[in-house]
Structure formats: C-alpha cells, structure tokens
Amino acid sequence: MKRTGTGTNNTSHQSAQGGILGKKMSRRDVLYLGATAGIAGALSGGIVLSEGAINPAHAASSATISVSGTQWGVSTAYIGATEGNVRFNTADMSDLGINTYRIYGGMSRWEWQDPYSPYGTPTIDQIKANPSVINWTWWDNAMTNPPNGSDYWWSNGPTLWQGNARTIFANLQSAGIRPVVTVRNRDNNGNPAWAPNPPVTANDWNVWWGHVFSTVYWLNVRNNYNVNDFEIHNEPNNSSQGWGGTESQYFTFAQYTHDAVAYVFNTYLPGRTYHVYAPVTTGGSSWPNDALQQIPAYFDSVDIHDYSGSISSYVQQVHGWMDSTGHSSYPLWLSEWGTYRGKYNSISFDVSLVSNLISGSQPGDSNVTGSHVFSMYDWSGGSGHLQSFQGLVAADGTRTSGYYAMRLGIRGLQGARPTYQSTTSNSNLQAITTKDSAGHVYLLVTNSSVKTAYTVDADLSALISSGTGTMWQFDSTHMDVVVGSPQLSNGHVAFTVLGTSAVLLKF
C-alpha cells in the first residue's frame, strides 16, 4: 500500500534505487542481495510503507511523563550521515538538520595509480624536507577532474553524482557541516591493486605515509577546507572492507597514519585541533578494547559501527572499555548505524531511529558524541559492482519516511544541548527533554507499541510553567508535520502519541 504524508513538509518523500560502494561485502550482504528483488518496489516507486505502517483505531491508554529540573547530561553533539554516491546537496543536509558528513577517502579515490616512479618514492624524510616533491598536479586533478576510468565512486558512471572532492569539501565548509574523512589503502572492492596491503617494507610505508600527508596537506594547507577529522581505515576487522593485515599490523598502520596527520597539523597549522579516529570496527568487535590498551596515543576518538536494532548494548560495552583503560575522556563516535537493508520506508524501523537518537543522547555509558547514520543518499552499484543500497534520499532528491523521522529527532537533540531525565510510566514510551541555547524546551517521545496509543500527561513544571508550544508528529500518515499548538497549564501538557510514532513538543 502506498501512502503519502500530509501537510506542507512532506513533498517528494519516496525511496529510489539503493546503492553502495563504500560499504559491505560480507556474508550478511550476500544474504541481503538475495532479498533485493523482494523489495524492488520499495526501492523504485513512492513510499511503500511496511512494518507498522498502519495504526488501527484503538482506545488510547493513559500515561505520564515526569521531567526532572536537574540537568542530566548533554545530547549528542554531532548528528550526521555517511555519504552516498548518487547525489550530493547541502540543501538536503540543512533541511535534515545534520551537522557532520562522513566521506570515504583513500587511495582508490585519490591515488588509483601510483603517481611516482620508482615505487616507494618520495620517502618520508624527503617529504618532510620539502613538500614540493609531492606530485601536486596529480592531486589537483584527482580532486577536481577524476577520470572515468578510475574507481572514483562520485562520478564513474552516468547513474552517479557527477561531482568531485573539491565541490564536496567547499560546499560542506560553506554550510558549516563538519566532514569526517576515512583514509584507507584499499577499499571494499580491493582497489587500488598497486597499494601495499598491508604495508610492511620501508617503501610500503613511504607510499602510505605520503598518501596520508598529501590528503591532509591538500585539504588544509594547499587549500583551506577546514577538514580536521580522519578515520584510520574502515572496518579493518572485516576483510571485505579492504584491510589485508592482522590486528597487530593495523595498529602499526595506525601509528604511521597518526604520525602523518600530526605532522601536517603540527608543522603547518600549529595550534589547530585535529582528531584521529580508531579502530572504526563493526559492532561486537573487541578491537576497540585492544586499541585502547595497546595504541591509545595514536588516536583520540573511539570510532565504532553498529547496525543493531538498539545501539545501547554495544555503546555501553565500549564505554566500559574506555573507562577501564583510563580513556573515558575520549569522544565516542558511531560512524555507521541505521540500515543497509532497505528499511527506510518501514515506519516501525523509522521510529526506532528516533529511539536510538534518544539513547545516544542519554548520559554516561549510553552517550554518543557523534554519529553518522548510514547513509544519506542511495548507493548505486553501477557497472562492475555488486551491490545497491537505499539511503535516506534518492538520486532525484525524493525522501524516504526515515528521512522525516530522523529530521524530527535531530530537531529535538542536535548540538550537545543540556538534557533532562524524562521518566515515563509505560515502557513502550521513551522520552528525553532538552533545552537549546535560546532557552526553548523540547520534549521528544517515541511509542514502540504497534497498536496502543497513549494519552500523555507530561509534567514539565520543573523547567517551565506556562506557554503555547508547537507539536510535530511522525507516523504512517504524518511525515514530521506540525499537528498542533499544545498549551502548558501549571507546567503540565496533555497530548496523544499514536502507536508506532514519534512526537516532538517545543515550548
């Protein structure tokens, strides 16, 4: 059954061709490929809602929410998305409300051929002595005019976004969106074949150190794109993502990567803050604990991926490792989460996205400093690639229902806001309250019950006593639209939360 949302903010919300090239080639994805045909309609037409898309009429149950007046913690500081390859438009990002964008960099994009001869030149010492030994003509062309023959995922094929790195970084900077760049020697398709994998010899390390140096220098010294965040590879514990070495060899790889990043900033941009993220591993991996124990000096931000229905368990486990190794002050980033299984038009899954945003904004071992939902745009496999995956937005700009769920949640949480514990009387309801820099109070609530609606009495009296607010709603027929102007009376406000829905109130 096809449905469209109502109201003024729900135009053009449909899914389209999915896609990925910077993503998974593991067994889970092979299994997914067999199911692709079964969701083809949802990946090519308008919104085809599933799993909780219908809210049958049922008598509402009563519930309460009690909001504390004591600050609980701070919300996630950076909520963003990982890129897709069919589209790039910062107007989409500004509408969604994201403030960070994750980009797959590395040798397959920027050094798909060796720009030097013989192999292993220039050396690390030569680069340090004189950065002009870098082939900057190659780098300018790679970032501006990549050839169609390269494995350059932004422009290699007519179905992909026809752009370049220079446009991406310039536009992100203009929009005030923080880029996080992955650097890796080989990608999930095994490219480029010439790159050392893993680096072992002195010449191998010259090649890799020079690549990282060139990336960071081009972005920040040769140009001024203000790119200060770098991930060391992508899921190195998952061989399908390109890393060909052991955990121990990855730790050496991390040392050289950190050294190259640090050298650029310390030498040419002294005093400017930069961040290096590791180990960028899949959910359930123990590599974060090992990295914190063995190489804590070579990164300052813990980075994980987790596609669980609830992110809280693994996030809490990783926080426990951070605490036990004495690195609780490191930021924790969840740089991939959400889904690559075409669920962004399932209302129940979309509501779970908001619940996970709430979880990541809770204090202590649940807190996430930054996150990137996977993915902002579709990934199109195109010629020579095996996989296509659905993002929040399609190539032509049409939006899934998941886009609108994310937008509602981001509106209530974005930006490291003070949070206030919001205790619900029913376990189907999850809630959190925040306050923005202008003093506006936001109450965000999700209802995971498929059939039961709740008439809620929320007590905000510890924070605010009176006023008229705005209420947004997300469910199968409301794509993040304003549905009312709730009234506070002695700090209390009454509203209804439908089954499988999310609401946001602002006062």
Describe this entry's structure for a reader.
- The chain has 507 residues and is of the alpha/beta class.
- The protein has 2 domains: 61-71 and 419-506, Golgi alpha-mannosidase II (Immunoglobulin-like, Sandwich), CATH 2.60.40; 77-336 and 347-379, Glycosidases (TIM Barrel), CATH 3.20.20.
- It is 27% helix and 22% strand.
- It has helices spanning 27-35, 90-96, 107-110, 124-129, 136-144, 165-175, 202-222, 247-268, 287-294, 312-324, 347-360, 401-413; strands at residues 61-74, 78-82, 100-104, 178-183, 229-232, 275-281, 301-305, 332-338, 370-374, 418-424, 429-435, 441-447, 454-459, 467-468, 470-475, 478-484, 487-488, 492-497, 501-506.
- It has a 9-stranded mixed β-sheet. Strands 2-3-4-5-6-7-8-9 form an 8-stranded parallel beta barrel. A two-stranded antiparallel sheet has the order 14-17.
- Helix 2 links the parallel strand 2 and strand 3.
- Helix 7 packs parallel to helix 8 and helix 11 (347-360) packs parallel to helix 12.
- The longest helix has 22 residues, at 247-268.
